[in-house]
Specification:
By secondary structure, the chain is of the alpha+beta class. The protein has 13 helices and 24 strands. 30% of the residues lie in helices and 27% in strands. The structure holds adenosine monophosphate (AMP) and glycine.
């Protein structure tokens, strides 16, 4: 099977790494990719948001399967263009990707499907905003309606900061605050059958102790030793399957990866958000534990054959990933700084620890930073403590001027299994 992956982040590196280990994959291409992906896939230049360009590249390469990683091309309809060219694609149509592309649309689908989520108002004027903030009280949760790379949500006790964020967005969703730990649960679907993966936890705030601004994600771990063993089954029944059924009922079936961001509140599981693609950095830890060959799973989604797939196989290992970010992330990051120590990790820590590249590019012989999140250092172990130790040992070998990372990823669960 010839596979083309679209995207450039650590998630795409994780996808490409797993695909490169699948014996069914005979050729692996990625566009545009990064310096790390170049080691496992052939890179091509393409504007990932241009459906015509992506489908032409896929046709030229004779791709049997195209995997669209990030949300922006999905929302822009890139999967539709590839499908129209007759090539199976892993990823939802532009219409279906609105589950992520519009928070208001997602709320509407959840209401119709009876999926438990925070109560909310959609607001477009300062008066509506003031009323909604008043109705819910602190802490205030204000979400930009559109795509914002994980940075469009403000959670604050300060009513003026909440109103200011709302004023900076065209349309906002204001909702009740959900307490309790968060879980990211991914499911692969073909629009009908839903196959949940193993849950993971992400660390969204920039700084240790969950301080600082929201980011795209600073680290993750899986499995979740504290989670109810019936959680996945419950979320499948109350969230994932009803949502997929509702999307099909609307004539816009959702196929690809449905990502449920969940809060485990004192009153039960609630959906915080849906995403229409693999999460980053959770994918790095989920795929580290998936033993079923990835290409067959993604192809079963793309070709509507998930009902015939054998149950997924998982390793008993635990996995932890730590994101190394540029100076000033999640603000405008500093880029172009050389990264060293990557060879040391490969020599000393492989195969249990490895570096997945996010924003990197090659500059002559050097690898330099090229984005906010630069690397996602991933490790497996017999338990979370061992995986965490290995991940941080590898992080310690990497040098990137001005870089930052959290030191408390999976710290609280390190003693558990
Ligand atoms: P989202 O992009 O919707 O996942 O929001 C980003 C982050 O903001 C989430 O991971 C939560 O940490 C936080 N958040 C979003 N919605 C809520 C809510 N209703 N209550 C509490 N925290 C929230
Ligand atoms: N890790 C959060 C996201 O991928 O949106």
């Amino acid at each position: 099977m010839k596979v083309l992956v679209i995207g450039t982040g650590a998630r795409e590196h994780a996808l490409c790494r797993s695909l490169s280990l699948d014996p069914a994959v005979t050729a692996l291409h990625c566009a545009p990719g990064n310096a790390g992906i170049a080691e496992v896939a052939e890179l091509h230049k393409v504007d990932a948001l241009d459906g015509k360009a992506v489908s032409e590249l896929a046709t030229e390469l004779g791709a049997d399967l195209v995997v669209v990683g990030p949300e922006a091309p999905l929302v822009a309809g890139v999967a539709d263009a590839v499908r129209a060219a007759g090539i199976p694609v892993f990823g939802p149509s532009g219409e279906a990707a609105r589950l992520e592309g519009s928070k208001a649309f997602a709320k509407d689908v959840m209401a119709a499907a009876g999926v438990p989520t925070a109560r909310s108002y959609v607001c477009t004027t300062p008066e509506e905003v003031a009323e909604a903030l008043d109705a819910f009280g602190a802490p205030y949760v204000v979400k930009d309606d559109g795509l914002a790379a994980g940075k469009g949500v403000v959670v604050t006790d300060d009513v003026e900061a909440a109103a200011a964020h709302a004023a900076a967005c065209e349309r906002v969703v204001i909702e009740e605050f959900l307490d309790g730990p968060e879980v990211s649960l991914f499911a692969v679907t073909d629009g009908e059958t839903v196959v949940p993966l193993q849950p993971a936890q992400d660390f969204k705030r920039a700084l240790d102790g969950d301080e600082g601004p929201n980011t795209g994600g600073m680290g993750a771990y899986s499995p979740l030793p504290w989670a109810d063993p019936k959680l996945v089954e419950e979320v499948l029944e109350t969230v994932l399957q009803p949502t997929v059924d509702e999307m099909r009922r609307r004539g816009t079936p959702f196929s690809g990866l449905l990502y449920a961001g969940l809060a485990i509140t004192s009153r039960g599981v609630r959906v915080i958000e849906f995403n229409a693609r693999f999460g980053d950095p959770e994918t790095q830890v989920v795929l580290a534990r998936l033993q079923t060959p990835l290409a067959g799973l993604l192809m079963a989604s793309a070709s509507g054959n998930l009902a015939h797939l054998e149950p997924l196989r998982w390793s008993d290992d635990a996995a932890v990933t730590v994101v190394v970010a540029s100076h000033n992330y999640p603000g405008t990051p500093r880029t172009g700084d050389p990264i060293t120590g990557l060879d040391e990790v490969a020599a000393e820590d492989a195969p249990h620890a490895y570096v997945l590249h996010a924003g990197t590019r090659r500059d002559g012989d050097a690898v330099v930073s090229a984005g906010g999140r630069v690397l996602s250092v991933t490790a497996t172990g017999d338990d979370l403590g061992q995986a965490r130790e290995r991940a941080y040992r590898a992080v310690g070998r990497i040098r990137l001027d001005g870089s930052q990372h959290r030191t408390d990823i999976a710290e609280k669960v390190a003693g558990a299994r």
